Amino acid sequence: MTGSKKFFLTKSGLSRVEREYQELLKLKAFKTTGESPRIFHSEEIDPEFLAFQEDLELLETRIIELEDVLKNSQVISSPPKERRNVVALGATVTIEVDGEKDEFEIVGTLEADPRLGRISDESMVGRALIGLRVGEEVTVQSPVKTTYKIKAIRY
Fold this sequence. Notes:
By secondary structure, the chain is α/β, with parallel strands linked by helices. It has helices at residues 11-33, 47-71, 124-129; strands spanning 7-9, 73-75, 92-97, 100-107, 118-120, 137-142, 144-154.
């Protein structure tokens, strides 16, 4: 964890992270206050105890990751009215590719899911679209050369 990277999230994305964080804290408290498997009285270590320790370590790692996200998150907000004609983080962009229309929402890396039309501002296409206006085109070479023409921008 660097701690210096900003995580851009929508309001709903931030709520999801906060909810997961709270649920994991509850789970950790439950796991650590209950009966944990004990080491057998022999020289061997109980495999159940080792599994418990590994689960706890994974849980703790995820809690630390979420704490970093929460400390370094910034909610994506709409730009001022005079800047809403330019593609920026949080924009839903209607584009045309080879005569077909498509739509992308430009989000931070944590919420990106291309299957749902949510692309990261750090992806090749996301980076290429940032700063463009309706009517402008950009060609992206990512395995295949594709030209995107901006048809509409919404916030």
